[in-house]
Design goal:
single chain; alpha+beta; 13 helices; 4 strands; 64% helix; 9% strand; disordered C terminus
Amino acid sequence: MSNKPKYLSTVKAILHILVGALVFAVGVQAFIVPHKLLSGGISGLTLIIYYVTQGALSLGMINFLLNLPVLYAAWRWLGGWHLGITIFGTVLMSILINLVSPLAELGLTQNPIIGGILGGLFSGLGLGIVYRGGGNTGGIDPIALIIRNRFGLQIGSILFGINMMILIIGAIVINIEAAATTLISTYLSAMVTNKMITGFNQRKAMFIISYKPVTICNLIIDKIGRGATILNGEGAYTHQPKQVIMVVVSLLQVARLKAAVEAEDPTAFMVITDAAEVIGTGFSARSTNGVVERVLQTCDPVKTAEAEQMIHEVQMARNEIPVENKKEK
């Protein structure tokens, strides 16, 4: 049982690397190479060397050689499991780039800008698929993961910053037109990568301050179909106790909820902000057969306690609670 989660995460990472690396390789060979554009990360340095040496070495071989120092960084800071995934992703990416090299001869796009846009979309989609599965394909991916782990920055944003330095090198060695077009490609790639990781289904977090918290909470459940959480607060000026309702909704539900709350309590104070990533029942695959929904969708303390007990029983039945905790119960 203990090895199952790690086994499943490894299989998931491998599958995502297979698909993502293929998409990335197609983007490079079909849209970047034909127009002698650049790319980000190690692949950008790979393309610079490839153009300068006029193809004396294959892209895959150059990519693999440049990634050798990165493998050490993966081993040093990310551990054995990440090292294995990095080696697998690096080798697979190098092989796939060579396998799809005939795409560069097809001339799918005639306009370099269109090539840069499509190349950025494909590469960002490919990297996003890889990262979403917990894998990487070598290059500066492990470096980005190290920075993310230490500073909590988004991977796409980290890659964009590093890629800017590589583009400056490309502008000097190749030409400024290719670097400028690649800037568009790199920006699109970073945006798509971030979206793939956090999800395209944008959510909004709403904080509602009302003197009718239970009524508003039930309104959210009945009319919007979402759960809510009541937070205890205090007014900074009056020091009077207040209750804040927190709810996460989709973009389409924002207007409906605003109108419903204003109709029920015109004096209600609402704050609406972006929720970059939402993990939990109703928003991700995690579920406990509807029991969690019962907790989220109740404002009654007694019902909440009953639902929490039901969650505990379900978790025990599924062996989701450690054995020592079961004994205590």
